[in-house]
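B., you asked whether I could sanity-check this one before it goes into the benchmark set. Here's the sequence:
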Amino acid sequence: MVHPVVPGPAVTEEERGSRDEPERDRMVIARSFLLAFGRPGKEQRDLILGSDWLEDLASRGWLGKDDPRKLRKGLPRDPGEWESFVLSTFDVGFPAPQVPLIETHYLKEGSPPEVLHENILYYKAFGCKLTEGDSDNPDHLRHQLGFLVILCWLESGAGAPPATARSARAARKEFVERHLLSWLPNAARQAERKAHPLWGGLLQALRAWLAEEFLPEDAEAGRCFET
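And here's what the prediction gave me:
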């Protein structure tokens, strides 16, 4: 997981109070998607099965025509079965999982090492690093969403003074366009073909939120990527 190397500088109450509520809302939404596409566990299961999160996504228009009840249909309730369900979708399989959540898996043009290196450079630019054992896949969705959470945190004023918040705002727009919207549409289509309907719906919802929130003027990104 991507995390800050050191805590940010202190922020005054005046600076914190000047930030908009939508900025804090972005961080909450980013954290919920990070949990949904993170490692399998009780919190993830409760978010999807035991809360109205899917209904909230639908009410915002991000699930498209997907019905939350249908997306939950057939999902395992047992903790062990849930873990196997998530791992078999995203992490385990030969020659690859059903839906790898890795940017370079969907890259059809360009250099994978350059994409990996650019992800790392973004993380380092804001004093972040991957936890030990995660450095093999810096382009994994959970790392990219973890970094987006940090950028939203900095931008909200909770973790940084105004100058850093402005830098975070510029970086997250560029990062979302270059390293999330460039491959998520293809991952969503692959999930719709190969995995439980839940995952295609959630990947489409993530794509819709990112395009609406961070790139409203250009919801279609990633023209160098193919299915």
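One thing to flag: The chain has one domain: 2-214. Otherwise nothing jumped out at me.
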